[in-house]
Amino acid sequence: MTRSISEEVRMSTLYAVILAGGTGERMGVGLPKQILDLGGKELIRWSLDCFLSLEEVEKIVVVMAEDWLEKMGDVLKGLDTGGRPLSLVPGGNTRRESSWKGIDALAGDRKGLACIHDAARPFVTPELVRRCAVEAGKCGAAAPYLPVTDTVAIIDDEGFIREVPDRSSLVLAQTPQVFRYDLIREAHREGSEKGIEVSDDVTLALMAGHRVCRVEGEAGNFKITTREDLERARWIAGGGQLA
Ligand code: CTP
Ligand code: MG
Q: For residue 26, how far is its CA from the centre of ligand 1 (angstroms)?
């Protein structure tokens, strides 16, 4: 197990929700991307192994699309969790619904910290989880972000360029997004009552009036969305290097 970086990093109890409830439409291979092979193991195993390597993680919930629960059960069977509970729950039609189901199933201690992570980001590192957890422990909510290097444009309804926003105030969101358990549970409860659709959990925390701290993301922690992303991930998993 990965040991604490230093004594000053006193971590709370961590819980992990690994979101694998999507079906990978943009990948378009007919199987959810989280169970495709990446370097000799299923893609989701990379995230699971990362969270299992952290001794502070007490409980893990995996959320999987209903039709693929059996297959995911096979993937999880035989995993060494070090005696910690690992449960599998059916997801919802949207990421928000899946996340809410995972958070609900955690039934965590209100002082614990819930790490919500996309199974589609296999190269998450224990260091990144720790950095997010340390910040969330201080301010209630924290997530990793990368600076935007390309110029970004906003388009209008007809697809014409409407505006080019100032890049210096834009960042790209990653996961794990880490929250005090009671905070994110309440934010999700409100979000699900209103039926609001959002693409991450931070949005719900903001809507509930909370401040969210920014942690420096990692370029390696990219999300696998397309076949090109998977090819790049396989190259990295196979030991590929730039120089
Ligand atoms: N996710 C989820 N439940 C959903 C939709 C998405 O748990 N109903 C999860 C995915 O499994 C993924 C993460 O949210 O780990 C980010 O979603 P995305 O990359 O969009 O994955 P998919 O929804 O599977 O892909 P696509 O949008 O191309 O169908
Ligand atoms: Mg999706």
A: 10
